[in-house]
Design goal:
Number of strands: 0
Order of helices and strands: H
Distance between the termini: 145 Å
Oligomer: single chain
Number of helices: 1
Strand content: under 5%
Structural class: mainly alpha
Helix content: over 70%
Shape: rod-shaped
Radius of gyration: 42 Å
């Protein structure tokens, strides 16, 4: 019927749009996945920059690690040296007398 002609045209246009949307759906899904990946990369960027700035410190820590372990193993000797310090100072003060005694010996 002629009075339904505008409705038929509207329905035909809607069918074309639905068909187009169906054909575009895979691309739309891809765009959504890409958008999520882009948002993640934007979130990640400052963290990557921070890691780049921290890299020299990490390398320095790697270089320092064996030295710190060595210092840890040397700690008991360092403590012993600290306890021996007064005797070493006493020996230093006695050195002239010891040298005098050595010269006086026949």
């Amino acid at each position: 019927p002629p009075h339904q002609l505008p409705q038929v045209r509207l329905l035909a246009r809607l069918q074309l749009r639905v068909g187009l949307l169906i054909r575009l759906q895979p691309q739309l899904e891809l765009l959504i996945r890409l958008q999520l990946q882009l948002e993640f990369l934007i979130w990640l960027q400052p963290r990557v920059e921070l890691l780049g700035r921290l890299q020299p410190r990490v390398e320095l820590l790697g270089w320092l690690q064996p030295r710190v372990e060595l210092l840890g193993r040397l700690q008991p000797q360092v403590e012993l040296l600290g306890r021996l310090q007064p005797q070493v100072e006493l020996l230093g003060r006695l050195q002239p007398q010891v040298e005098l005694l050595i010269r006086l010996q026949p």
